[in-house]
Amino acid sequence: MSFTHPEILSEKRNLLAQCLKKAAVSKNGAVRKVLLAGAGVAALAFGVPQAAFAQADLPKTIPEGLKLEAAQALPITPFYTEAPSADAPTWPGGLIRAEKVTDYAIPAGMTAWRILYHSLDAERHDVVTSGFVLLPAGPAPAGGWPVVAWAHGTSGVAQPCAPSLMKDLYYGDEGLFEFPKAGLAVVATDYHGQGTPGAHQYMNKLAQGYDVIYSVAAAHTALPGVLSKQWVADGHSQGGMASWSVGEMEQQMKNPDYLGTVSVSGTVDMLDFIAPKPEEVGAPFYFPMVAYGLKARYPDFDVHSILTKDGYEHYPLIATKGCWFTGYAAYLGKTSAQIMKPNWTKVPAVQAMLKEDIMGDKPVKGPLMVLTGGGDVSVPPGGVKKTAQKACKNGIKLFFHLYPGLDHDPTMINSTQDQIAWIKDRFAGKPFEQNCGGF
Could you state a single Gene Ontology molecular function term (predicted)? Predict the structure, then answer.
């Protein structure tokens, strides 16, 4: 298959102009973040520092972060919190309730539904999970719309941080809407603890994998005859780990309707993601969220064992209310060494998380596509590539591609059409081309 490459000079010039123009007028906080990051990538062609663009319009204070999130927020209604009816199913994938949604900012013609369903946490305990379904415009084809089970990247860890509680569905113009435009239905989990009450087991491949898989069963119940039985998993960042985990789980479940996985900029090498770096890069505000996820997974874990006083200062805020923008602003200017205690990655709970989140060792069902950006400072591309190479050595057939120069969110945006083409090949039954040994 052919791949688009934004490093071509003429394309960069157009991207720079478009991103700067859109960023100047957009009122959507999430879109502004992405557009400015994309402008930074394009600016590399002209010697302009990417950081000047990527950080230009992000919040610099907690009130600014909360304001950006409030502008996109939808209320947590009884849909998310009301106890299931007595006759509601209780098995994983069982639909509790569904409702058509009209308050999302989605392209004309598309329709959206919220779903609430049963799933499992990392220890296979029952949890209630929310999500949404996004349908293409027009009537469904014979057999239903082909399904992409979408796993989102980090939005936060608190209950209000669910994409289904955001007007733009969090990813909005960051590639999400391109799937329905291409005739693919999106079934998107929020992950349990986001939207629904309870603790979100952040960065746990088992919990997030279950939430993705069981969202598909729930969506089929909610919209009978509208969705194809066949489906593909796709995820970015936190969701890139989740979608790869789906492939591992499906190897055991042997669902004949599951056709493969796309993992984009996935946290598939957790140690590489959290390990202290000689030169500070990326966003240390992710690490207090990791502490939250550890507490959710291991209730006896004490977050003070890894967070410094500065690290804990804003932890209660992001644990209960603040999402991505607030977390970014709360720890702006801090280094990981300032907010995390020395040798924190060696704490037993962290080591248990790293062991549970190992990727590339277990076989996966169906084809696997692994994408990353060469300029990613949030999820280092070296760890993604190393995990893909390990998977190949373990007999896992996959297709790997690195987009030169692209940071974390621009990788998702600029690879969307490649993802769609690959996914459509799976539904068309075309042979899978792997490139193990060629990267």
Answer: triacylglycerol lipase activity
Instruction: Return the pLDDT at 3.
Output: 55
CA 394 to chain centre: 26
Give dist(CA 4, CA 401) in Å, integer. Answer: 11
Distance CA 72, CA 340 (A): 31
- 270-289 pLDDT, tens digit per residue, is 999 998 766 665 668 999 99
SS3 assignment, position 166: strand
Whether pLDDT at 111 is above 80? yes
pLDDT at 1: 52
258 - beta bridge partners?
231
The Cα–Cα gap between 312 and 290 comes to 12
Q: Tokens 């039954």 appear where? A: 429
Residue 139 per-residue DSSP state: P
pLDDT, position 282: 60
pTM of the model: 0.89
Q: Which amino acid, residue 186?
A: V
The CATH number of the domain covering residues in 62-271+363-428: 3.40.50.1820
Residue reference for tokens 């957009």: 26
Residue 365 region, left (φ>0) first, then alpha (ψ -120 to 50), else beta? Answer: beta
Question: How many C-beta neighbours within 10 Å does residue 278 have?
Answer: 5
Mean pLDDT of the chain: 88
DSSP code at position 87: T
- Is the CB of residue 321 less than 8 Å from the CB of residue 161? no
CB atoms within 10 A of CB 300: 6
Is-contact 199 341, C-beta < 8 A? no
Least confident range of 6-20, 60-74, 100-114, 187-201: 6-20
Q: What is the spatial order of strands in the sheet that 227-236 belongs to?
A: 95-101, 111-120, 126-135, 185-189, 145-151, 227-236, 258-264, 368-373, 399-403
